[in-house]
Design goal:
Blueprint: H1 9-20, E1 28-37, H2 40-47, H3 51-69, E2 73-78, E3 81-86, H4 91-110, E4 115-127, E5 130-132, H5 134-147, E6 152-154, H6 156-165, E7 167-168, E8 174-177, E9 184-186, E10 192-194, E11 200-202, H7 209-216, H8 231-255, H9 259-277
Parallel strand pairs: 4-6
Antiparallel strand pairs: 1-3, 1-4, 2-3, 4-5, 6-11, 7-8, 8-9, 10-11
Length: about 300
């Protein structure tokens, strides 16, 4: 490496002149979300010198899905923070972002790491390495000051719009109809709920496929009911899907030493147990319940 090597001054001037004169430099109203890995320093310590590769793999598991399923979603990774945003403020974009966040948070939870963050709608500009975004600032303030616990807070304006504009299709499924394309995006309204302090949140634990069926006795994607399935098989699948989540929470419990860390894990244990207890059709839910006592 030649540390005294000079760059192309005139090339740089031309590049930034073109950038500054671009018609693209303006705010757009967008859906913006951030997700922060709690106790990130512990993750760095655990992986040591291999941290760059291991942590990149953690991010890539969900981002591969973003790039293959949602072309209109963009992302940036900054150390322990995933920034994901849409190029518009469409409600279907908000639902897609919620879906990606579930995948990301669930993957980390299975490894024993907790996450928190926020989903916001507002003014946002990003081009190449330049970002000017009141929406990002607001999401960051939510994450830093309001989340406290491992949860994703959804701005109330987004929830109100989802509630107001959702319709029921011929199969009885609630969702958002895209006016331009005619595409219908289903919503599991139960996946976002009011937390103890009034904030609307989403939980990645809720995203496990068979939870909805075993809780409400009906499918979230068609008109089938619980009686259309082999209950033993569905319960077996649910136990297999939730056991890695339970193991991840127990691992996080094992790592928690300080009072604030313990409080965060206790919060998640309570959330997990509540979701499990609400599964009215899961005949083996007692196997999944976690005791929250810390020794």
């Amino acid at each position: 490496m030649n540390r005294n090597e000079s760059g192309d001054f005139f090339g740089s001037v031309k590049k930034w002149d073109e950038f500054n004169n671009s018609k693209d430099i303006h705010y757009s109203n967008c859906i913006v979300a951030i997700v922060d890995i709690i106790a990130y320093r512990n993750l760095l310590t655990e992986y040591g010198k291999s941290a760059p590769k291991e942590i990149t793999m953690i991010f890539s598991e969900s981002l591969k899905f973003v790039e293959s399923a949602y072309l209109h979603l963009k992302y940036k990774i900054l150390s322990d923070t995933l920034i994901i945003y849409a190029t518009d403020d469409n409600l279907i974009s908000a639902l897609n972002i919620m879906n990606v966040i579930d995948i990301f948070c669930l993957g980390l939870l299975k490894k024993g790491y907790l996450t928190r963050g926020a989903i916001i709608k507002g003014d946002h500009f990003i081009k190449e390495d330049v970002m000017v975004s009141p929406a990002f600032v607001k999401a960051y303030e939510y994450e830093q000051n309001l989340c406290i616990y491992p949860r994703i807070i959804i701005e109330s304006e987004i929830i109100s719009e989802l509630d107001q504009k959702s319709i029921q299709n011929q199969d009885g499924i609630f969702g958002i109809q895209d006016v331009d394309s005619g595409y219908f995006r289903g919503i599991k309204k139960e996946n976002y709920f009011t937390d103890f302090d009034g904030h609307k949140i989403q939980s990645c634990i809720n995203s496990v496929g068979s939870n909805y069926l075993l809780t409400y006795g009906k499918s979230s994607v068609d008109s089938k009911t619980i009686s259309d399935y082999n209950l033993d098989e569905i319960v077996d699948e649910n136990i297999r899907s939730l056991n890695p989540v339970k193991s991840g929470i127990l691992l996080a419990k094992e790592r928690a030493k300080k009072p604030k860390e313990i409080a965060k894990v206790d919060y998640l244990i309570n959330q997990f147990n509540t979701i499990v207890k609400n599964m009215n059709y899961n005949t083996r839910k007692q196997e999944l319940l976690i005791t929250s006592d810390f020794v």
